[in-house]
């Protein structure tokens, strides 16, 4: 490849990266900031609702779970929030109820793993 071709490819790639990251485009950065603000507000509302639904001990346990498995904690939070919105939760969720819920979710999402071992036949084996 000739040097002018390589330079043209580099320039196009640099422009793509700059456009993707919003460099030089004020409107793009404003949209990104608005999206970030909306996400932050939604997360704050979510945490506020969870603090009203969960007891202090249950919140602590869920926070510890989130440190190890964030996707699992997020799923449990979703289940709790949906149940609260549907009126299935009348009182604060205690740590014991949270443990029960976690066990139920674990039983539902447990994946079976199967290991199969395939032995290679050696060229020198006479078992044919």
From TrEMBL:
InterPro entries the UniProt entry points to: PDCD5-like (IPR002836), PDCD5-like_sf (IPR036883)
GO cellular component: cytosol; nucleus
Disordered: annotated segments: 18-45
SUPFAM superfamilies per UniProt: Double-stranded DNA-binding domain
Matches recorded under Pfam families: dsDNA_bind
Biased composition (Basic and acidic residues): 33-45
GO molecular function: DNA binding
Family from the record: Belongs to the PDCD5 family.
Protein's recorded name: DNA-binding protein DDB_G0278111-like
Species in which this protein is naturally found: Arachis hypogaea
């Amino acid at each position: 490849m000739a040097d002018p071709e390589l330079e043209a490819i580099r320039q196009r790639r640099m422009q793509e990266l700059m456009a993707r990251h919003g460099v030089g485009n004020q409107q793009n950065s404003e949209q990104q900031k608005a999206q970030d603000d909306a996400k932050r507000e939604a997360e704050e509302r979510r945490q506020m609702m969870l603090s009203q639904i969960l007891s202090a001990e249950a919140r602590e346990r869920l926070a510890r779970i989130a440190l190890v498995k964030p996707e699992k904690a997020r799923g449990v939070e979703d289940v709790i929030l949906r149940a609260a919105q549907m009126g299935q939760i009348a009182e604060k969720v205690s740590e014991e109820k949270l443990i029960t819920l976690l066990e139920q979710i674990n039983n539902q999402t447990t994946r079976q793993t199967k290991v199969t071992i395939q032995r290679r036949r050696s060229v020198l084996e006479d078992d044919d």
